[in-house]
Write a structure and sequence with these properties.
The protein is mainly alpha-helical and about 160 residues long. Helices cover about 50% and strands about 5% of the residues. A two-stranded antiparallel sheet has the order 1-2. Strand 1 and strand 2 form a beta hairpin. The chain is elongated.
């Protein structure tokens, strides 16, 4: 359980911060960049929509676990079953969609959250010796957000039409 009785500590005022195992690192360290990108993704997902609360809450909790593991926590890990959960939800939603015949023009908060998750995935790949399930989870999560956006926009979806010059 995390207890935060004081929000500001002033320990980061010199450009350094602490990881979960109390190692001091630069705020620009790849680990901190990845944690920040995951945090931003989590916030964007929280703003996405109220329609899918059970899925969104599960994903947001997973992203906190994922961030803790990136930060060095040893008691929390992203396992293969979390990836399987995402794949199952993707399959459930995708079942109700027509196959794509072109790229989708991204509209709405789910697509925005998807692109932020993609950036978080790229940041995670910059970390040495990362649990492979972390970038895999983020990859599937962006796929899930894409499928959820398509489902949410069903009937209103706009497809890319190349301009040919």
């Amino acid at each position: 359980m995390v207890i935060l009785s004081k929000i500001y500590t002033k320990t980061g005022d010199d450009g350094q911060t602490s990881t979960a195992n109390n190692e001091r690192v630069s705020k620009t360290d790849p680990i901190m960049e990845a944690i920040g990108a995951v945090d931003e993704a989590n916030s964007a997902i929280g703003m996405a929509t109220d329609e899918y609360n059970d899925i969104i809450e599960r994903v947001q909790s997973d992203l906190f676990d994922l961030g803790a593991e990136i930060a060095g926590a040893t008691t929390i890990t992203i396992s293969e079953n979390r990836i399987t959960y995402l794949e199952n939800v993707i399959d459930d939603y995708n079942e109700h969609l027509e196959p794509l015949r072109s790229f989708v023009l991204p509209t709405g908060p789910l697509h925005n959250a998807r692109t932020i998750v993609r950036r978080a995935e790229r940041e995670v790949w910059k970390i040495d010796n990362i649990n492979i399930n972390i970038p895999k989870y983020l990859n599937r999560l962006s796929d899930l957000l894409f499928v959820m956006a398509r489902y949410h926009n069903k009937g209103k979806e706009k497809l890319w039409v190349p301009s040919n010059g």
